[in-house]
Amino acid sequence: MLIRRLLPRLTTIIPVRTTNSSPDRARQTWSIVKQTKYMYCSRPESQIDTKTRLCWKCKALITSAIEFFCPSCNIIQRPLKKTTYFEIMDSPKTFDVNTVQLNDKYKELQWKLHPDKFSDVSEEEKKISEEQSSRVNEAYVTLLKPLSRGLYLLNLHGEHVTESEATSTDGEFLAAIMEKYEQISSSSEERLEEIQKENNEHLEKCIQDISDAFAQGDIQTARQEVIKLNYYNNVAEYIRNQGDWS
């Protein structure tokens, strides 16, 4: 049982000067221009492409999907569901992530978006800051670790796999994992250190294989290696649980 638990029209109307122009005609022409202008400026969000939107407060056009504040009124904006974690954290959409830059970006965003900085604003702004801060947390945690990052990349490529679903059907591989658990359960501390070293080598190779597979566009191989990584992570956790050493 323990093993199983692990295991977005502008019509331009230009008034034309004529010899028959009259004040009434001029007023009528400019009225059309004015109406057309307002039609354009207040177009619904449904007519804007997916990477642009309107500020919920001042209705100014925001052209970036990852703009956290309106460039016109500086009001915090609601998070866009279609924005990926890589976009949020300003990181290339690859398996190889610079974790130092990721940490720096996380601190920068939380300094700007954390709810504590929105204590004296409207309830709507407070709610949005909580949503944005939570989304940044999700992005950071997901991209920080190789396993969660790999699973997320698989999902972006159409391979919808969760950590609990990351199970292998390779009998030989599963047998080797089972044997490893048995060894851990009955090994001395010295032997556990050897097993941990072996498992760390498996983890490093697996992470490199995942990186290579994604770089080559081989999603199926990446999927298989991510599943293996899940098992090796569980073995590492099981070893750590055998004592207070690591």
TrEMBL record:
InterPro entries: DnaJ_domain, HscB, HscB_C_sf, HscB_oligo_C, J_dom_sf. It holds the Pfam family HSCB_C. Signal peptide: none annotated. SMART domains: DnaJ (SM00271). Keywords: Chaperone, Coiled coil. The keyword Chaperone applies. Residues 84-156 form the J domain. Gene3D superfamilies: DnaJ domain, HscB, C-terminal domain. Residues 178-205 form a coiled coil. NCBIfam families: hscB. Belongs to the HscB family. PANTHER family: IRON-SULFUR CLUSTER CO-CHAPERONE PROTEIN HSCB (PTHR14021). This is J domain-containing protein. The lineage of its organism: Eukaryota, Metazoa, Cnidaria, Anthozoa, Hexacorallia.
